[in-house]
Amino acid sequence: MTPLKRASAWLDRAEEVFAALALGLMTALTFVQVILRYLFETGFVWSLEATTYTFGWLVVVGMAYGVRTRAHIATDLLTRTLKPRAAQIVACIALALCLAYCALMLAGSFAFVDGLMRLGHDAQDIPVPRWLLASILPVGFALLALRFVQAGWRHFAPAASPRSDGGVSAGAARSGEDGNAAGGGS
Amino acid sequence: MSLVWLMIVLFVCLFLGVPIAIALGLASITTLLLFTDHSLIVLAQRFFYTMQVYPLLAIPFFILAGTFMTTGGVARRMIDFANALVGHFRGGLAMAALLACALFAAVSGSSPATVVAVGTIMIAGMVASGYRREFAAGLICNAGTLGILIPPSIVMVVYGAVTETSIGHLFIAGVLPGVVLVLALMAVVAFRARRDDLPRQPRAGFATVLRTGREAIWGLLLVVIILGGIYLGAFTPTEAAAVSAVYAFVVAVFVYRDLKLRDVPRVLTESARITAMLMFIIANAFLFAFVLTTEQLPQQISAWIIDLGLPPWAFLLVLNLILLVAGNFMEPASVILILAPILFPIATALGVHPVHLGIIMTVNMEIGMITPPVGLNLFVTAGIADMSVAQVMRAALPWLAVLIAVLLLITYVPAISLWLPVLVGWPDAAS
Questions:
Q1: pLDDT in tens, B244-300
Q2: Which of A173, B183, B233, B263 has the fewest CB atoms within 10 Å distance of its CB?
Q3: For residues A122 and B317, what is the distance between their CA atoms, to the nearest angstrom?
Q4: How confident is the model at residue B426 (pLDDT cuts 50, 70, 90)?
Q5: B151: which DSSP letter?
């Protein structure tokens, strides 16, 4: 295993573990809040805000994880009817559009976090600076871009897995199945 | 002009096979940059803000509860119970499959999940007992759509969040239309059973009914907790969802014991994956809706439609057509997010009750799940029935007539949606 592959496997695992923990934490926080209210007539003021930010982190990290596991829904209305050569070209354009999206959102996220940093406020109920809570956004979109590049690499590289049969053409999002095997994380 | 650009980018992206979420996002971003003074910062901020919308927090919890119930053997117990109840009729196994879909819909807020939970067991079972594979797949594919009509329902959560309609009202209102749809499908199964001489199962004794019922009751209590809790004002829908997720965990791990504690991380990961996928679409659909609003498009379109002076019945027909077409091309949550702000003001101006509109939209989304190109149920059914998507599409087509008939009934008889909420004492649902 090359260091690059090892790093990639580690990243895959980290994404999964993080997403699972975030969901568990959100559920536990909300559930405990209900219990506290009924049994002890109390609650934590920070609970709701902590839950919503955990939710945000879960989604932002999870969207990249979704590319690898082919979770994202796309249509194959056009690509299904094309010849392999044309399908390859369309898949290439689709991938470029996905990367353009990542780049634009990445730029927006950086500017957003930068703005928050300059304001320097803390979040409402939790004593953490707002910019830090939002800093997952640029990380998430960078990860998303990385996943699309990986998926594209697997799809277009000549040494791609033997199962690249055109069925993966529906955007890079569909090519995560081999990713599972290659990632070894799951 | 901006509307034209928005739509062109969206559809070009969709046809090229770009994921729906990104197609929505890219259309919104480019429109914003080309036609407004807003910067990219607003988009990043809006995107992140989606996860702070309190009612939407219910979505990950309902998904988690549903995943526990799917992997935890609840579906099998519901199937056993349904089979004990109706298996002895002609075509009994098909009726049991249908009933099991309805029961499972009451613990799951999503249609594809319902198809997977019941279909994995029942399609093979029906084929083994001599049903045609097409019949089995077509039935399950359609009955699975009950997942979003019978509470809990993720689609209703989204509708409630955008239109500020009570999610509790919507959930209760979905019960009766769900029953009507089950009865309609049941009638068709009974008719086909007689015509094609479909097999019966041996009659289950009363003891079996009681035993399977007692086994299934733990799963069914979930919907009682959700509806009861919201109705009594014990929890908000979001809290009810979190409580039901914890309840589903306890039932799967400690009551049914189909799931070991060490399986729990896998359930969490799978639910997180579905949550992120769905929320990624919703967040981008929020961007899309935001761009529409900054360009004042909902108001313009609403005003234009109101100017047409359509009578309510004609408007409802147009509304259904728009929703059916949109439901074909997109995923339900995004359709609701984009179209509800446009349709809601017109509907209320014409005296359509918000809860009734929510139910109409939900039933339309059900139909969208079984029509290409983005019919999620078709893809899922094809996967578990070992058929091609085209085959499932043909198999599901005859049943579509039933769904459309029920849609028209629900559209033009508001009482089906509003009677139950009024009965349980929400006077404002009557207006």
A1: 999 999 999 999 888 899 999 999 999 999 999 999 999 999 999 999 888 888 888
A2: B233
A3: 50
A4: low
A5: S
**Residue B47 and residue B283 in contact, taking contact as beta carbons nearer than 8 Å:** yes
B258 close to B77: Cβ distance less than 8 angstroms: no
Select from A65, A75, A112 the Cβ nearest to the Cβ of B17: A75
Can you read off the two tokens belonging to residue B313? 């019945």
C-beta atoms of B274 and A71 within 8 A: yes
Global pTM?
0.89
Q: Using an 8 Å CB-CB cutoff, list chain B residues near A112.
A: 41, 44-45, 48
The structure tokens listed for B52 are 């702070």
Give the up-direction half-sphere exposure of residue B267: CA atoms within 13 A in the CB hemisphere: 26
Q: Give the nearest chain B residue to A19 (CA atoms).
A: B272
One DSSP character per residue, chain A reads --HHHHHHHHHHHHHHHHHHHHHHHHHHHHHHHHHIIIIIS---TTHHHHHHHHHHHHHHHHHHHHHHTT-S----TTGGGS-HHHHHHHHHHHHHHHHHHHHHHHHHHHHHHHHHHHH-PBPSSSSSBHHHHHTHHHHHHHHHHHHHHHHHHHHHSTT--TT-SSGGGS-GGGGGHHHHHHH---
CB atoms A104 and B29 under 8 Å: yes
Instruction: Tell me: ipTM over 0.90.
Output: no
The residue to which tokens 């059900």 are assigned:
B366
